[in-house]
Specification:
Elements: H1 2-6, H2 10-13, H3 19-29, H4 35-47, H5 50-65, H6 72-92, H7 94-115, H8 118-128, H9 133-146, H10 151-168, H11 173-190, H12 197-209, H13 218-225, H14 230-245, E1 247-248, H15 250-260, H16 292-316, H17 319-327, H18 332-341, H19 344-365, H20 371-383, H21 386-405, H22 407-415, H23 424-439, H24 442-463, H25 468-492, H26 497-506, H27 510-537, H28 542-560, E2 562-563
Antiparallel strand pairs: 1-2
Length: about 575
């Protein structure tokens, strides 16, 4: 009863979220602090709708924060209005606003360069290089790497271009769909410039704030996780191995042998790319296809981002660090210091806006689009990112609720002493996989899991005696487990949008694609866990783990796979 008496004080306490508020709420609510993330996870499994799941998860948290034992009706009202306040408050933050703008802006750039025919031109050039079945598969892979900036664009662009080429060399539609799908999300998740990076660095920043670290450079953390993205890296290498070795297994072996016999099309027919209603990513008709329409804006985006990072970080340096940077402006140490101090949200938005200006100028100058058409296309690109923005806003709100309720503190106190250090990264990876598989989205999984993973990894690492660089490395491994687990689950899920689009782009029956891809994804998943996350959790150097993982991946293809 004493705990219940404190509940009426919570709306007052919530006005200023500090460690003491989180501590008090954790003591008051105890187990009930887990309700918001658990509700979000359970509903994600049941409804397959991440937006709805996140919203109800946030509402369950605001309800607890504002609960009044004498008037349940007012609690519902205050809970709802609290959600609105948190969303508005998220957008009021300059960091969050920069993230939203750069995500939208990059979506616009993707739409522009695609409408100009730039991406298709590059794809056609690559397709002409294919002379054999092996080169056709590798060309598809290279094309997927080139379209690094967005997984949707990857799935929609690569398939229709390469389908005639792979058909010519009797590569099955299932294998084509697999290559498309296995490069789309994995490469977009790794790219430092993409429609994904804003979400990823934002969630990392929010997670560190939950452990009291407010001055962390989230972009730097993101870059540090790249070598630990085992599933992404091993899957990209797996594709190359199957192509060069000419070996397949499980359902893909049957599909490839069927294709070699001349039966190229799926048994049950497939939905073609033409059935996709959204034509945003199709080039304008009757235009001259030039690869420079894609290469130039993307180079401006990438180079502009590096320049923006440099000068943003330079403006933030002080004292000896600033003097050293001015004395030696182009050294590795200076780049490391400036990039570490840069405001990633602003830098990425600046580069995306500059790339937009260049792309619009090129479209108008080359008479591909009028100014009005170019701006409209850019706006349509923004629309493709709306779902991402919604997930971002709800993820930020969930993070703030978890922080205020003291969920992380309660979870840390409960599990930090009982969870073995070696087990946690793999556990995070598998939990992310289950959530992503059930929901069909990587974004939502990251939003749900990251606020829990970072505080827990920090607590488990500290309890295990880690400190300094060792603790930092352990945190990096755990963060990468969230990001890669989300992608693995999404890769396997039959309800994933990228899985569906890959099937359509390849002209492959969707179920055939899922069934043939699943064994490959599970094989790479096993390598990622046992050769990747377990050894690194024990402290083994990443530069030993990575070559070993690549070797094991190749051995899996060699000894499990059979000649087609």
């Amino acid at each position: 009863m004493k705990k219940i008496l404190f509940l009426s004080l919570l709306p007052i306490l919530a006005l200023a979220v500090d460690p003491e508020v989180a501590k008090k709420n954790a003591e008051i609510f105890g187990f009930w602090t887990l309700i918001p993330p658990v509700v979000a996870i359970v509903l994600a499994f049941i409804t397959k709708d991440v937006v709805l799941s996140l919203f109800i998860g946030v509402f369950s948290g605001t309800f607890l924060i504002n609960v009044i034992d004498s008037n349940i009706f007012m609690t519902f009202i205050k809970g709802f209005t609290d959600i609105v306040k948190r969303i508005v408050g998220s957008l009021a933050d300059s960091w969050n606003a920069g993230i939203v703008l750069q995500v939208l802006c990059i979506g616009g750039v993707v739409a522009l360069i695609t409408k100009m025919g730039g991406t298709k031109a590059v794809a056609l050039w690559l397709s002409k290089k294919a002379k054999t079945g092996i080169s056709a598969q590798i060309s598809t892979w290279v094309m997927g790497l080139f379209v690094f900036f967005d997984d949707y664009a990857n799935s929609l662009i690569v398939g229709p271009i390469m389908r005639p080429i792979t058909d010519k060399f009797k590569v099955s539609r299932e294998k084509l769909a697999f290559i498309i799908d296995a490069t789309a999300a994995p490469i977009a998740g790794l790219a430092v410039i993409s429609t994904w990076v804003g979400l990823e660095i934002s969630l990392i920043k929010q997670g560190y704030e939950l452990i009291g670290v407010t001055n962390v450079n989230a972009f730097s953390i993101f870059v540090e996780t790249i070598p630990y993205r085992f599933y992404n890296l091993f899957m990209l290498f797996f594709i190359v191995c199957t192509a060069f070795m000419g070996r397949e297994f499980a359902g893909m072996l049957k599909a490839e042998r069927r294709a070699r016999a001349g039966e190229l099309h799926p048994r049950r027919g497939g939905a073609l790319i033409e059935n996709i209603e959204d034509k945003t990513l199709e080039p304008k008709e009757n235009i001259k296809l030039q690869s420079s329409n894609a290469v130039v804006p993307l180079l401006v985006l990438i180079i502009g981002a590096f320049v923006s990072f440099y000068f943003s970080g330079l403006g933030s340096l002080e004292g000896e660090a600033l003097q050293s940077a001015k004395a030696h402006p182009l050294t590795f140490h200076t780049f490391q210091a400036t990039f570490g101090a840069a405001d990633a949200s602003v830098a990425l938005f600046q580069s995306a806006l500059l790339a937009t200006v260049v792309a619009i100028f090129m479209a108008v100058y080359r008479k591909i689009l009028t100014v009005r058409e170019a701006i409209e296309t850019w706006g349509k690109g923004w629309k493709t990112m709306i779902t991402t923005i919604i997930i971002l806003l709800l993820a930020w709100s969930l993070s703030s609720v978890i922080k205020e309720l003291g969920t992380s503190r309660y979870l840390v106190d409960m599990l930090s002493h009982s969870t073995p250090k070696i087990v946690l990264p793999a556990t995070i990876f598998m939990l992310g996989s289950f959530i992503s598989f059930s929901t069909g989205t990587s974004y939502g999984t990251m939003g749900i899991l990251m606020p829990l993973a970072i505080p827990l990894a920090n607590a488990v690492g500290m309890y295990s005696g880690l400190e300094g660089d060792a603790l930092h490395a352990y945190m990096i491994v755990s963060i990468s487990a969230v990001l890669t687990g989300a992608i693995f689950g999404d890769h396997c899920s039959p309800i994933s949008d990228t899985t569906i689009l890959s099937s359509m782009g390849a002209g492959c029956n969707h179920i055939d694609h899922v069934q043939t891809q699943m064994p490959y994804a599970l094989a790479v998943c096993a390598v990622s866990i046992f050769v990747g996350y377990f050894p690194t959790a024990l402290g083994l150097s990443i530069w030993m783990v990575l070559p070993l993982g690549l070797l094991v991946t190749a051995l899996v293809v060699r000894f499990i796979g059979q000649k087609v």
